[in-house]
Write a structure and sequence with these properties.
Blueprint lengths: L9 H9 L4 H22 L5 H20 L3 H6 L1 H18 L1 E3 L2 E6 L3 E2 L2 H18 L6 H19 L4 H17 L4 H20 L1 H4 L11 H11 L10 H12 L11 H4 L11 H34 L3 H26 L16 H25 L1
Antiparallel strand pairs: 1-2, 2-3
Helix pairs in contact: 2-3, 2-14, 3-16, 5-6, 5-7, 6-7, 6-8, 6-15, 6-16, 7-8, 8-15, 12-14, 14-15, 14-16, 15-16
């Protein structure tokens, strides 16, 4: 008697892959992807192959999201220590034999040229979430100190390259894990107060401290110049202050409704530097105005809100800490980018998530959302 084996259809084979997916998170990502693609076409249609390359990067992020979503959180946890150790070793390699470009030593040639600091954007929250998960129920002050050391090592190596933007992102991802793990407000408030006092003193003494030849010791000269330019960009309007001034002009000229799709004069007359990368928010604001900016903010809030819900519902401490840190890191990316373009933060080279052109940033976003999806799936599958 012949046995007939029916070959499953493509739909039947796809169902297990997407089973348990958080479709609200998918919708949030889709909203940001559409905004990113429309913006890139508008500001980059006359900028070589930026639009098609951005589409390729977006497709790669989607692929990474779906692949990483198949990896259960328990497996992600087992990768935390190896990923962190590899990242630190590569950062040490950069310090010893790294490639220098434009005054920064950030790259390493291991057959292919890589930027190890990018690995730490994912490895850092993984590592600290793993550490606090191991110490769950018996946390003491020493555990937070160990976490601080684990965070300080890669951040210090990245700052030394120097790469202030990436170091801030890695630092924030680690601090979010430490905060969500239960760090006391008594330890959080003093550094915040100290930071506010420091900024106030800097503003009051900017003329003296930003005078030519003054050495701040703790910062590189280019970093000192970025801070001083932020305080008063008009001192060098055609040089170091050009980026900030043109960004603010573009944002202001957009008005309420913007100049229209593909109609930005500051953008297409090349007044906005890096209009498809770091300063794309200025180009977006010029063409879509306040209404477009509010829509963009709503999209980010939608995505961040869903990520925090996933974190709250996660079944384990590791999953909660990781999901919370990944979600808040998206907030930091967006806040820092919009802040530096608007003239309220120094220019540090941080892209606008899903909107700015950049393969590395898009891969990082895909990895982060894939981990969020993995955490959301683990809860859905357990409930079933």
């Amino acid at each position: 008697m012949a046995v007939v084996i029916e070959k499953p259809s493509l739909l039947q084979r796809l169902v297990p892959v997407v089973q348990g997916f958080d479709w609200v998170l998918v919708a949030a990502f889709a909203v940001m992807a559409v905004i990113g693609m429309v913006t890139m076409y508008s500001v980059g249609f006359d900028h070589g192959s930026r639009f098609s390359a951005h589409g390729r990067n977006m497709a790669l992020a989607v692929l990474i999201l779906f692949v990483v979503a198949q990896v259960p959180p328990q497996r992600l946890m087992s990768l935390a220590l190896p990923a962190y150790a590899m990242g630190v070793l590569l950062l040490i390699g950069v310090e010893l034999i790294g490639i220098e470009r434009k005054g920064s030593q950030r790259w390493l040639d291991i057959g292919v040229v890589i930027q190890p600091s990018e690995i730490m954007k994912v490895a850092m929250p993984l590592m600290l979430a793993w550490w606090f998960h191991r110490r769950e129920g018996r946390l003491h002050t020493i555990d937070y100190l160990v976490a601080g050391v684990l965070l300080a090592v890669p951040v210090g190596l990245i700052i030394k390259q120097p790469d202030l933007g990436t170091s801030l992102l890695v630092l924030s991802s680690g601090l979010f894990v430490i905060f969500f793990a239960g760090l006391s407000w008594k330890l959080i408030i003093p550094p915040v107060v100290l930071g506010v006092v420091g900024v106030t003193v800097l503003i009051l003494n900017q003329d003296a401290w930003c005078a030519p030849g003054v050495d701040w010791k703790v910062l590189h000269e280019y970093q000192r110049q970025r801070v001083c330019t932020l305080l008063d960009p008009t001192k060098d309007p055609l040089g170091k202050g050009f980026h900030i001034i043109q960004g603010m002009i573009a944002i202001g000229s957009g008005g309420v409704w913007g100049k229209g799709f593909m109609q930005g004069t500051q953008t297409h007359l090349e007044f906005i530097p890096e209009r498809t990368t770091d300063f794309i928010f200025a180009a977006f604001s010029e063409e879509f105005g306040l209404a477009g900016v509010l829509t963009l903010l709503a999209g980010f809030l939608f995505l961040i809100g869903r990520g925090l819900v996933i974190a709250l519902d996660a079944p384990t401490l590791f999953s909660r800490l990781l999901a919370g840190a990944i979600t808040m890191n998206i907030f930091v990316y967006a806040f820092v980018n919009m802040g530096m373009v608007s003239g309220i933060l120094p220019v540090v080279g941080v892209p606008l998530p899903f909107v700015s052109y950049g393969g590395t940033a898009m891969v990082t976003m895909g990895l982060g959302l894939g981990m969020l999806m993995s955490i959301a799936r683990s809860r859905q599958l357990v409930m079933r």
